[in-house]
Structure formats: C-alpha cells, structure tokens
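Lab notebook, bench 4. The sequencing result for the construct came back, and we need a structural model before the next group meeting so we can plan mutations. Quick request posted to the team channel:

Model the 3D structure of this chain.
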Amino acid sequence: MLVSGEEVTHAVAHGETLGHIAQRFGMQVQLAATINRLPDVNHLRLGQRLQLSTRHIVPAKSADSIVINVADLRLYWVRDGALMASFPVGVGREDWETPSGHYTIVGRRRDPVWHVPKSIQREMKDRGEPVKKRVEPGPDNPLGKFWLQLSAPGYGIHGTNAPWSVGKFTTHGCVRLRPDDIEWLFNNVPTGTPVDIIDEPVKVARVGDDTVLLEVHTRSTGHAKDVVGAVVERLQQAGLADVVDLNAAARVVRDGWGVAIDVSKKPRAPGDVMARGAAGS
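Done. Here's the predicted structure in token form:
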C-alpha cells in the first residue's frame, strides 16, 4: 500500500504561528501541539524545533484513479500504481454531504462561471443575503479559477476564493482545493480519469517487513467503542493483528491524530517523537 508525506523537523521562523505552520504542512493545529507537547499554542520561540507529520496512508481503490477520502479531507491521485499527488481538500458540510461513489472527470473549465443552484439561492434568501443566480469569473467567484466536472451532475473539483476553508467540512457538496493545488491538478490530470469518493476513517498499511502504520480519523467514526471495533476488524482483515502493539493502536484511536502512526511490535528509537506519542511514553 502507498504512503504519502513524511515526518519532518521545522525550525520556527520570525513571525510564524503554529496555525501558519500547521496549515503549511496540512496538519491540524491541535495535532501539532499534541505531538510537540506545547503547553501554549500561542507562544513559540524563534528557532524552536517542531516535529511535524504529513504522513497519510493512500486508500487502496485503483492503480489509476483519483481517490477523495472524506474522512481525512484529502485527495490522492494514483496513476500506474504510483502516487502522483496528494492535496488537502474541503468537502461537504454535515447537512450537505459530498456524495460517495464512483465517478469520472468528464470536462474542465478555466475561469468558470458559477450558475448558482436554486437550493443555494434559497439558502441565500433564508440568511438575508442578496440572492445571486450567476457569478462571473473573478475574486468573488467561490469556484476559483479552475473546475473539473464530475460525472455526478452539479458536482466538481474546483478552486476557491477562500483558501482558509480547505481542510474543513464547509462546502455544498463539491470538493474544494487551494488555488495552487487545483491549478496543478487541472494542468496534469486527464479527462476521463476515474474518481472514487469514499469515507474511510480507519486505514492500515504494512511498509516493508516490520512496520505497520495505523491512521484513524475520529470525526465520522462514531463512538470510541465503534472505532476500536473498526480498527480490530481492519487489522484482522489485513492479517496484521499479531504484529501490532495493541496498546499503541488504542492510543492512536484515543488521540485521533489523523496521521499515519507506527504501531508495530518492535523497539522504537529514543528520539522518535511520533513513536513516543503513539506509545504514550
């Protein structure tokens, strides 16, 4: 199974906040604070070294497709069995979910016009906002500069004029990317590419002979007991239950870090911050 991202050490530069750093690495602020045991996220020292992780397990769907995992708010593009790109995304909010399913990219538009759906027009009216039926290209267009049309009518992968909203459940069902990321995808992914939208909150991967990674996202998994059951089931399905440190796996579930953590039954290096966090030492 493919794994994206890495664990890195970052030295705090002048004027940086934990929010800026976490956003740059596609992490949650609380996760970065927990990994680094920061008592106050608002006070960083110049030159302070932070351990960060962008490591994610790529969901196994196809050797040649885009996979959008709602649970971890990420898009993965796999082509000929190799990971081409991985980007954070914004997806549908709880009352307007991004629909799971198998789709295809059927078209594309640069500088798209937003034809506002009637359902969103009603929402504008209910909130006392000016009702718009059409938004021309430009800084006020929430679709940004690029649109990839999915075979699901009315749904697409697009940019945004609100980059801060990427990495959140905030759209009306479409998949939203940061401006630079959607531009890259628009210029590289071909029309006809399959797109699988899934909600997979528990992911397991075996890397090499002795490393098992576990990634858990708690937002859509329900109660803790359900999460533990899903983790045990996934480990058993993969034939890995006997080679996993179950205490470390339980802490991954408890902490809900949302990145891939080593939960193997093996000694960990004393300096491995991520491993220590998973092991709880």
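The chain has three domains: 3-56, 63-198, 202-279.
Will bring this to the meeting.
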